[in-house]
Amino acid sequence: MVYTPWCVAASIEDSIKGIDYSMGLGVVAKKIKDRKRSPKRSVSVFLDEQVISLYHNYNGYRLYIINATDKDERFDTDCGVLFAGTKAYIDDKWQSIEEKPLIISCSFTYEILKTGYYWEFHVPKFTGEIPVKIRYKVYAGGTYIYSNEIDAKINRGQLTNKTSDYPEWEKPLEEH
Q1: Per its UniProt entry, which superkingdom is the organism in (predicted)?
Q2: pLDDT of residue 135
Q3: Strand partners of residue 4
Q4: Would you list the DSSP string of 9-44?
């Protein structure tokens, strides 16, 4: 299994240009520039289908957590880590592929995503022989938020039911 940094930080060029960032210790919340393109009055998770290059010949996707509501949104974390579950639709049900840590900061029990801002993470592109739909789930505000679905391919060996390493509130729930 390959682990990569899951968060994106602001560049020096962005600072010089005066781009509006809300800075955290690990991940940078960026201001939504075009509210017409973001979901109306919701906190959402969006998985971009465009493949990006990650470290040493690995591919991935951009995963966005967007707060288009009128209030700041609290995300419970475990030592600054927000867990995102990767789900594959296989055998007529959603099953876990893996749970990924999305590092937001250092040692806080929660993080706040301000209204009108989003976080961007990089997540792996799975490869395999079985065509499936995949989506991500994130825990926020006492409920799970699911991303859009995209086409992917996996192998059965990538499916998992592991839950022991996750905080009680983040243990996977029965999927529908």
Answers
A1: Bacteria
A2: 96
A3: none
A4: ---HHHHHHT--EEE-SSSEEEE-S-TTTSPTTSEE
Please name the residue that has the structure tokens 């391919």: 153
The separation between the first and the last C-alpha atoms of the chain, rounded to the nearest angstrom, is 28
Tokens of 35: 């509210």
Class of the domain covering 12-159:
mainly beta
Strand segments (E) across 51-168 = 52-54, 58-67, 73-76, 81-90, 93-103, 110-113, 117-124, 130-140, 143-146, 150-154
Backbone dihedral angles phi then psi of residue 85, each to the nearest 5 degrees: -90, 135
- Residue 154: CB atoms within 10 A of its CB come to 20
- The DSSP letter of residue 175 is P
Report the predicted TM-score, pTM, of the whole model to 2 decimal places.
Answer: 0.74
Cα dist. 79→91, 102, 110, 117, 129 in Å? 35, 11, 8, 22, 36
* Whether pLDDT at 50 is above 90: yes
